[in-house]
Amino acid sequence: MKILITGASGQLGTELCHLLDANGIVYKATDTSQLDITDKEQVVSFFNQEKPEVVYDCAAFTAVDAAEEEPGRTVNQTVNVQGTKNLAHATESIGATLVYISTDYVFDGTNLAEYLEDDTPKPKNEYGRAKLTGERAVQETVSKHYIIRTSWVFGEYGKNFVYTMQDLAKTHHELSVVNDQVGRPTWTKTLAEFMMYCVNERVAYGLYQLSNEGSCSWYEFACEILKNQDVKVNAVDSTQFPQKAYRPKHSVMNLDKAKATGFKIISWQDALHAFQRQIK
Ligand SMILES: NC(=O)c1ccc[n+]([C@@H]2O[C@H](COP(=O)([O-])OP(=O)(O)OC[C@H]3O[C@@H](n4cnc5c(N)ncnc54)[C@H](OP(=O)(O)O)[C@@H]3O)[C@@H](O)[C@H]2O)c1
């Protein structure tokens, strides 16, 4: 099976490369300099030449606040919408399978229950709107696709909340963290494993949601990250930390469909502690 990874130097892409290496699976990893997904001609000629059978698309513009104003808004549209469309058309033209990663930000977070895959999306920020347009392009264009929505991603190979909290704890005795936004943290390793599982186990094509089990507020997440450290964590309201982009208050996605595939999902606490042991 010929495998292509886009955005391979990002947080998820790097994790996926390590996972495939560990499983002895050969793949072609590309970053922006090798395959810019916004360059339609380059994408078409790359696909015609390489003829990948599976495309793990880890490329995205992920600066959620920057996406609210120029030039971020344009880059967000170009990468997350046009880039995704380019990949979708190129994938379909050679009959390959596309694995596309989406986000809980396709929801507005006003539902206090868990969001199901079929619930009507209602993104309230530019990034969420662009990723939803990407989802729809994949659904409409690619016969063989997996769309995997995820949330609150952390892992060894990128900037994320866990590293931010650990770094702040080195210089602060007290931290304030918002307690009125609830979601599901996701370890890149769990997500990469599910991506590989879908392809290798020939799971039914379609839309899935994948995070670690359980949910928490950012405050609760921070308490768990720093639980063995001498730092006081204070719970505050999100009005204390105004951000450009709207953040959902309760973006907890239901995981039953992913679990029904037979994939075992560990809790976010177990994932976090395994990750912390790994980076020690
Ligand atoms: N991080 C989260 O909390 C989160 C939450 C929900 C969903 N997601 C989704 O998860 C996926 C992976 O995110 P991540 O955390 O791994 O993001 P990331 O670390 O920002 O990685 C994204 C990668 O995409 C590459 N990229 C950007 N523009 C590109 C282009 N035009 N052509 C090719 N590659 C391009 C970036 O390369 P450069 O560095 O060269 O720009 C980067 O390596 C994305 O689809 C994202 O939307 C992430």
From TrEMBL:
Record-linked Pfam families: RmlD_sub_bind
Keyword Transcription regulation: no
Keyword list, A-Z: NADP, Oxidoreductase
Domain of life assignment: Bacteria
Role played: Catalyzes the reduction of dTDP-6-deoxy-L-lyxo-4-hexulose to yield dTDP-L-rhamnose.
NCBIfam families recorded: rmlD
Protein name according to UniProt: dTDP-4-dehydrorhamnose reductase
